[in-house]
Design brief:
alpha/beta; Arc Repressor Mutant, subunit A; 2 domains; 10 helices; 49% helix; elongated
Length: 195
């Protein structure tokens, strides 16, 4: 059974961006987007494994989300909102893309307190044909090194690094750095805490 995830966020741009990111991180999940709490209630509101909910929606409908506390992740922006949500699982939406991906992956690794279902399903090792050198390049990329730094660390030319990056993207079908980071973490090439 595919996990169902609900996002309740009135900001269309934020809603679509988070939906795309979660679909990339958790391709086996079905992600449904709602612009309002009433849209969620018109659906089947209790069928979701997790709720990513805008802070203003959370505050307006606290009773509903407190009953689903282990499943609720509040989308918080800024220190004020974060401090008001003590004890509630939050996701700071004002982080860089790299840090946002890292935070979502950490939710998976550490889980919610008393959660009934993990955010991400366990991943079986995927068959791929990355060479050991391509894996080294991938790991350095996910750790934030630029092409020149990778070339220097691995004692290879800049052109070779660029070729490895191109080959990695083609083999995996992943073009974005966040997607490569997710792949590397899910395959165990890097630990989330080392990013």
């Amino acid at each position: 059974m595919k996990p169902e995830i609900a996002i309740i966020e009135p900001n269309t741009l934020a809603l679509l961006g988070l939906q795309r990111l979660i679909e990339e991180i958790i391709p086996v999940a079905t992600v449904r987007a709602f612009r309002s709490f009433s849209e969620l209630m018109d659906d089947t509101p209790d069928m979701y494994a997790h709720y990513f909910v805008a802070s203003q929606v959370y505050f307006e409908h606290t009773t509903f989300f407190l009953e689903r506390r282990p499943k609720s992740i509040v989308l918080a922006s800024g220190e004020c909102t974060l401090s008001q949500l003590g004890g509630i699982t939050t996701l700071n939406t004002q982080q860089s893309e790299h840090d946002l991906v890292k935070s979502i992956l950490q939710l998976h690794n550490h889980g919610h307190h008393h959660a009934h279902q993990p955010l991400l399903p366990p991943q079986a090792p995927a068959e791929h044909d990355l060479s050991p050198r391509e894996i080294e390049v991938l790991v350095l990329l996910t750790r934030g090194f630029i092409n020149k730094e990778i070339a220097d660390r691995l004692n290879i030319s800049l052109t070779t690094v660029i070729t490895h990056r191109k080959n990695i993207s083609e083999k995996l079908g992943i073009k974005s750095l966040s997607g490569l980071t997710i792949y590397a973490v899910m395959r165990g090439y890097v630990e989330v805490d080392s990013l």
